[in-house]
Amino acid sequence: MSLEHLWAGWRSGYVSSVGSPGPAPVGDEHPAPLDDPDHCVFCRIAASGPPTAGNGVLWVGRHVLAVLNAYPYSCGHLMVVPLRHVRSVGELTEEEGNELWSGLRRGVTALEASFCPEGINLGANLGQAAGAGIPRHLHLHAVPRWVGDTNFMTAVAGVRVLPETLEDTWQRLHGAWPASPAG
Asked: 20, 76, 106, 131: least buried by Cβ within 10 Å?
């Protein structure tokens, strides 16, 4: 089967204007300006205090924090987020970028120690078109995976089955979080 292309050049104007400064497009779920930290869930989490099971924060560094995903793909799904409200990788300072990567390494170390996954998906969805649920604040994902960890519930029923609570997951990961950056 060959891939066919449908050219729709008239769509270029719309695609290049979506997400640009100015009024929000009709139906936008985020009517506040896209760079407004007062309307950002990650900025609220960063201001929520020290790590607790209640706020889901696992670790706070000088420039980034790690937090559980409140809507995980699987148990242990965590995110590493800059404390400063930035949209893109290019906005990070050298120190923020280094600590973002260090935080992700620490997260992987904690996942491996506490969940013994057979694999880990790492990723970033940069922008709404790339699938970012929160496109206004850069964040990286770490999702532990196991062979055969998929089932029909997600594909057919639109339901995820998670075998433990977020509080239990927080306890496991927070307890396994490395005290210093992973080698």
From this structure: 20
| 80 contact partners, CB below 8 Å, separation of at least 6 | 64, 65, 66, 100, 103, 104, 107, 139, 140, 142
Q: Is 85 a catalytic residue?
A: no
| pLDDT tens sequence across 29-40 | 444 554 566 789
Fold of domain 32-176 = HIT family, subunit A (3.30.428)
Per residue in 158-174, pLDDT (tens digit) is 777 778 899 999 999 99
The pTM of this model reads: 0.77
First CA to last CA distance, the chain: 47
Secondary structure class of 33 (helix, strand, coil): coil
Q: Report the alpha-carbon distance of residue 57 to residue 39 in Å, rounded.
A: 19
Catalytic residue among 77, 85, 137, 139: 139
